[in-house]
Amino acid sequence: MRTLSAARSVLVSLPMMITMASASIAHAQAPATTQPVYVNPAGTVRMGDLVEVAVDDLVGANVSTAFLLRVDPAGRVGLPLIKPVVLKDLTTDVAAVRIAKAYADAKLIQDAFVSVAIRELGTHPSIQLGPIASGDVVRVSIADLETSGAMASLDVTVTSEGTVALPHLDAVKLAGLSEIEAASAIARAYAAAQLIEAAQVTALRIADPKKSPAPTTRPAATKPTMPLQVGDVVEIGIDDLMAVGQTSTYATRVDAEGRVFTPLLGRLAVAGKSGDEAAQLISMAYGKANIVPRARVSIAVRNGLTDQPRAFVVGDTVEIQLLSLHRSGDKIYGQLAADGTVHLPMIGPLKLMGLTEELATQALADQIKRAALEENPIFSLVRTTVP
Fold this sequence. Notes:
By secondary structure, the chain is of the alpha+beta class. The chain folds into two domains: 50-206, no CATH class; 221-383, wza like fold (2-Layer Sandwich). The protein contains four helices and 21 strands. The strands form eight sheets. A four-stranded antiparallel sheet has the order 11-16-12-13, with helices on one face. Strands 2-1-5 form a three-stranded antiparallel sheet, covered by helices on one side. The longest helix is centred in the first third of the chain and has 14 residues, at 92-105. The protein is elongated.
């Protein structure tokens, strides 16, 4: 059973249109990444990394909210309503479990579903670590600002006086503060003004307000120009599979027998076929099985991740896409520890060492059933270790 603390109460409704400010940063010393860099979202969190933390049921019931946060010199990230959490040197799956425990310990959310993904490496930052200074652009995210139960984001420029302008507030001084301290200062300002009690706020210095803070971190997935081959990691999108009007997208590897995983159908042979041919084959299979008539299917290949199918070993990374359990869209990123396990929110440790992706998928399904979370879970599992 999940419960959300009443501390997130809104004292005054603040309907408004937020204007996104744009400016250049004067004092950022680290150059933005100029060449596309693949950053495996699963792995070990380090100082300076930019991580994406998704927390379910924090802003509102049945709402998953994602925050982009930078790991500070002490190895911490700042999340709404709880004390900073140390993530340095933790794998992404263990980091997610630690954050979930922090929300449970604070009596805010019991059994929180949390995921952590690395989006930018501290060794290749878009902006250098450091305190906020005049001229910086800070991306501020605030819950319940425009709409109750929703996050609003705005980019604000730090003035020469070291302050920023925020909706319905006098100037708030941020110069000299860390991102964690800035978020706390903004939350206190809204509480002092009797506008939002215990405001949920995050703050992130960004190098270019016109771009995502981490524009080159996701693996590129493109329409295949060559026939699919064993070892390719493909992203498959299927319309209306889990719900009408919803596209379920997941990643899977072409296995040693040339097959890919398809939810509710099993594995279908696609090796040697073009992307369009494979998509048509999958669509026809869903229609023939009376699961999705005339299913619209898309296929893209993740560049740079082709690798021969093999068993998991210590250090390998894994991406799990939950399609039926909890809510479609939830992902878990993990790295096999020395004992060959990954740690999964609500599910617990899962031993993958020595298993192929197909056997690992079955092992996870069995564990979900043992945890009494779902009788017939639907999900995908793929190794994302870069060859």
